[in-house]
Amino acid sequence: MRAYYDSSSKEHFNPNISRFFDEHIKIKAWLVVESELALAQASLGIIPMSAAEHIKDRAKIENLDLNKMQQIKSEIGHGFVPFVKVLGDACDAESSKYVHYGVTTQNIQQTGQLLILRDLTIVFKQVLGEILENLANLAKDHANTVMAGRTHGRHAIPITFGYKVSVWIYELRQAIQRLEEAEKRVFTVMMGGAVGAFNTQPEKGLEVQRRVAQALDMNEMEVPSRNIHSHKIEYITSLAQIANVLHKMAEEVYYGGIEEFNEIQEEFKRGTVGSSTMPHKINPKLAKGIIANAAKLYSLIQPGLYANVRLYEGDSSQYMMFDGLIDEAIELMNEVLIRANPLTKGMQVNVEQLYRNANLNNGLDNVDHIMMELAPLIGKDKAHSLMYDIAMKVKLEKKDLYELLTQEPLLKDQSSEYLHSLIKPENYTGISAQLALQQAEAAINKANELRSLQTRL
After folding, report:
1. Of residues 205, 189, 211, the one with CA closest to residue 40
2. For a tag on the chain, would you pick the N or C end, based on fewer CB atoms within 10 A?
3. What one-character DSSP code corresponds to residue 244?
4. Per-residue pLDDT for 93 more than 80?
5. Predicted confidence (pLDDT) per residue in 214-227, tens digit
């Protein structure tokens, strides 16, 4: 088991993502890379153009004898040579001489893997676009929904729920941007041969690699060493940072739905059972899956760093580790995304309870507001000391904040309406609503951009 699965895995199954887990897509990617390699070599006169065109024409999975490929694999114990043999068998005698010409296994396998990852990442980003749209709707709908802002696990000063969502949007947009900036380093072509120095094609090898990269719409490795895997670590890290933002949202929902808070929770479908012994239980199913899978995704970075420092110009244990880490990372990311989409779309926001909770301290959350009203008169430090003394009387002596304000010489001449306005949380949310609406617009713009992306495979 590479990821953590539960009923949500089936309920929110995304075929657009899951098709990339099919073993055949790996073979299809190898065929694409071998085809473009042959055409690049032919364009430089390394092999006959007629052979390259024939290889491209025959390089389709339906032309391969997959049973024979498995038989050869069991006999020789190599995972890629059987593919080369059956691809050669699918071509005519002359063209088969130039199949997999001048390159090594990892050149095709790694380039094919990154070609798949590029397309899979596009689908990931399309789902992230849907999540951004969900968050935009939440930010707009709750731009003015007052709630308690909290720091260190305690009430701070009021915000709006839309502002909280704006933080999620901004951080998610940043995480997506980090991934996009990494793509030019991650999705690269490697055609350097056995040790990466173009020993078999010293004069034209770099140009072959450049043309393959151009044909695949990918970048190329300046030094195509088989020992370099730092770009894969960067990819896993980029996924982990995206998952981390979605994890943060899930934690808020997981704990925000506790009865003592009762502020936000997952959408509940009648008939869903939370416990075999407690009929009343309604558990946060989507959030728990995000939390568990995101946490495991973070753990993949460390073994990647270890694997990347293996010695010499190539190491099979290194390849095995990275193949496993990449496979695990994308399955974990999938499990996070297929839950984060319905979580954000169906999030239930208890507006009345949020407001009640914002008033739990009987106006104390607004003493910062009162302090800043007094600061021009007596200075900020003195205003802070004054409001601290009043706050302690409210907290420790159970005094009423409004009554204490009416007794304060600096405020006693103010109207009752003014004093009451000072302690209403809705009057001290800063630009929460403005930031919510700004980020909602940015989320929609990014969502539209991500939706327009197209895959190749």
Report:
1. 211
2. N
3. H
4. yes
5. 999 999 999 999 99
